[in-house]
Amino acid sequence: MEHIKVFKIALIQARIRCSRFDRHTSQGNFFVLEDELERQGGLASYLRKAEKAEISIEPLIIRANAGDDVEIHLTNLSGTGNFKSLTERFHVEEGQRAIFLHTYLFARHDRETNDTLGALLVEEAGATFHDVHTGSELSFGAKAVIRRRNGTSFREFALFIQNSCINYRMEPMWERQENQRDPAYLFSSHVHGDPGTPVFETYPGEELRFQLLYDNCRKPIHIIGMPGQTDPPAAAPPCTPRRDADRNPVLTVRVTKPYAPGDYLYYFGETDSLWLGLWGILRAYSQPCKLLKPLADKKGNTPSALPSPNKGDIIRTYEAAAVQLKHNPGKPLFVPLPPGGGRRHSIHKARPLVLHANAGDWIELTLHNQMETSPLRVSLSPESMSFDPVYHSGINVGCNQWEQTVRPGTRKKYLWHADQDCELCPIQSFCDIRGQVPGQIVISKL
């Protein structure tokens, strides 16, 4: 008898809450499995819970295996459109990664309101999909544990990226700044709580896979301090999307190298998009967490060793200072200092901050805050290098405890590893993401 994987999906309409600051789409159209509607007590109950934000609405992510036959039954419960139900059957080809779900009924509305999104992710033949918290089989969701036939497994995170939202959510910087004026702590969960955008959880040493699904945008992803590689391989981070075989922009980012425990910042686009709210947190726990089940092939789950130089590794030492531009008070300019620096730098002799290293080198940078009339903290963070996120990221992000920034008149030492495949690595301050003059690290390949 022919085996067909069947999905019964409803199209409904409800208020979609886009941020913790009560930004919302008043009449959003979105997909939900009919089984999930029943589990929530039916359509009327689901809509009430959505209105009260008791249900976190996100794009529908379902999964199938390469070689499966899939049948989708779609029922229109939104009260709009010219159809009541339709059925579509198709075969999932080897090599496909994602099949977007569209209605094509609200094309203009979708672009303006960021809704009616969904995708079927294609996993390898024989793989199974599991809930990240309980380990039970998973029917839908942006977060999943994928177990391969060979016994290995990885965590898969699906993100729909649009011009203003990640999985229907945003975390605008200006709204955070209304609660805390010091921009050095805009990413801190100790000050603001976790962002409303996705927080992805893992344990160090576990393999990760980000499936990035782009709708009407082409924004690159930046994962600060996390060693990752793209599929297909990209020349250098930031990682930009390509169009898959079905003409949808899709990018897969795989993390297979060791990484340290702590909170990492990910964001899409450039600083303007970061300011508008296209960012979130990747959290790697240092100790077992009751709410996160370890991967089956990572029993014991001992944290990876903290990144540090091995015997024989080359460590290149540099010193730099944040100085104040007279024509732009309050905005730092980062300049190099001579060896054994620390003395005040003449703004009239300032030159761009450009550091040099070979692939595989470590960079030890001491940053001095020489902003004379500004009370603001400064920091530096490399975009395409690995480091310990708790001590050397240069960003007060998430629940990391160690202070990453430098107050006026003091200094801080950072340690970074040039272990990623790139030739130019931008370095910038996340204390003030607007109006700064960034530097860069030139990495030569041996």
Topology:
Blueprint: E1 5-17, E2 24-33, H1 34-39, H2 43-51, E3 60-65, E4 69-76, E5 85-91, E6 98-100, H3 107-113, E7 118-123, E8 128-130, E9 143-147, E10 153-161, H4 173-177, H5 189-192, E11 199-202, E12 208-214, E13 221-223, E14 229-231, E15 242-243, E16 249-255, E17 262-268, H6 271-276, E18 279-284, E19 315-324, E20 332-337, E21 354-358, E22 362-369, E23 381-382, E24 411-417, E25 424-428, E26 439-444
Parallel strand pairs: 1-4, 3-7, 10-12, 11-18, 19-22, 21-26
Antiparallel strand pairs: 1-2, 4-5, 6-7, 8-9, 9-10, 12-16, 13-17, 14-16, 15-16, 17-18, 19-20, 22-24, 23-25, 25-26
Structure description:
This protein has 446 residues and is mainly beta. The chain has six helices and 26 strands. Strands 8, 9, 10, 12, 14, 15 and 16 form a seven-stranded mixed β-sheet that branches. The chain is globular and about 70 Å long.
Instruction: Estimate what percentage of residues fall within beta strands.
Output: 35-45%
**Overall mean pLDDT score?**
85
| Class by alpha and beta content | mainly beta
* First and last CA, distance: 58 Å
How many E strands? 26
Cα-based radius of gyration, to the nearest Å = 23 Å
Which of globular, elongated, flat, extended, rod-shaped describes the shape? globular
Tell me the number of helical segments per DSSP (H or I, 4 or more residues long).
6
Low-pLDDT runs of 5+ residues are 108-112
Portion of residues within helices: under 10%
Describe the main β-sheet briefly: 7 strands, mixed
